[in-house]
Amino acid sequence: MARVIHAPEARPRAAAPPSRARLAFLGLCLVLIGLNLRTAFSSFGAVLTEVRASGSVPEWGISLLTTAPVTLLGVFAPLAPVLSRRLGSKRVLLGAMAVLTAGLLVRPSEWGPAGHLPGLILGTALCGAAIALCNVILPSEVKQDFPHRLGLMGGLYTAAIVASAALGAGFTYPVFQATGSWSSALLFWAFPALAVAVLFVPVAVRARHRGTPAGHPAEAGPGVWRSSTAWHVTLYMLFQAMTSFSVFAWLSPILRERGIDGATAGLMVSASIVLQMLGSLFAPSLAARLWDQRALNVTLAVMTSVGFALSVLGPLQLIWVWIALLGLGQGALTAAALTLIMLRTRHGHTAVNLSGMMQGIGYGVGSVGTLLVAQIHQATGSFALAGWAFLAIGVGASVFGYLAGRRRNVDDAA
């Protein structure tokens, strides 16, 4: 009987790892995306006085446009894991950058008799949705594509996000001075977003979406909601966000109330942002090298809350010391919280689920901090009580920072 010779079973070829050039290009794109994630918010604040003076936006609209963006980050964040599983994270990033560009183009447009308000509201909503998606997906992208460079890439993209707030605050008003139009100054920021979207097209096109493997612990995304570690990381993020957004919105008015002139107060806010960039650049590398992050998380929470409280209550002769303490602490605290997404997960799918959970709750509930400061000032006529309130918030950040810093993984329980 003739022997039947079976051909060896063909095995699927493993995908070749990306070249260094492609990784470098991807890393550059992720950093450039980060540079566009706060300009939409800080640019509006830079010309807020001119928007009010134009009379084209009612006061209730001003209140909506200054408070809604942070809430939108929390509202849209939970969509990111769902879209990432269905479409692939890189395609979602590309789509988000396209939506961000559209929002920035629509935002300053005038809608006939309705004026600028419809465009501002629609554009802000589009920007908030796009930024929320990018906020959630960027840490998981770093986790997936740069597993051996978590500290470096985490530092670079978080520093870029902080820098984007400074860019929007620093360059919008000069554009207004050059053009004489606040709508043109806001429109300017659509062009960097468009450029990054175009640059990211080949990355998204080449990306292969494999979906979540069957039976994978991250397949059922809500699993992270049952993890105590995920909740510790999320609550650490929440307390961090309460302080960070309050500083962003109220530091300058606090300094002005203490008798510091507007120019000096502006210089101090700028110095604080520069120090935030330094803190956010180095904190992820330090966190990644430590056995656990308990001591680091608590130290940064104390630095931030004490720096904020002393900026409100401390001796005015040492105000630059308090500003420096606050700036370094706040930048490093934000970066450390985001780095925990990568350090507390084993898989990229789990990272995007954790990121959606912590940023959805962190930004959604953390925006209460800004309203808390406003209510305290309205009720007492002073920011003094806010200083004490943020010492209490610092205690919360310290407690959950300690718990989140323990060497445990969300995947083990999710």
TrEMBL record:
Record's keyword annotation contains Transmembrane: yes
Listed transmembrane segments: 21-40, 60-80, 92-108, 120-138, 150-173, 185-205, 233-251, 263-283, 295-313, 319-343, 355-377, 383-404
Pfam families, sorted: MFS_1 (PF07690)
Keywords, ordered alphabetically: Membrane, Transmembrane, Transmembrane helix
GO molecular function annotations of the record: transmembrane transporter activity
Domain of life: Bacteria
InterPro entries cross-referenced by the UniProt entry: MFS, MFS_Cyanate_Porter, MFS_trans_sf
PANTHER family: 2-NITROIMIDAZOLE TRANSPORTER, PTHR23523
Annotated protein name in UniProt: Major facilitator superfamily MFS_1
Organism: Sinomonas atrocyanea
Phylogenetic placement of the source organism: Bacteria, Bacillati, Actinomycetota, Actinomycetes, Micrococcales
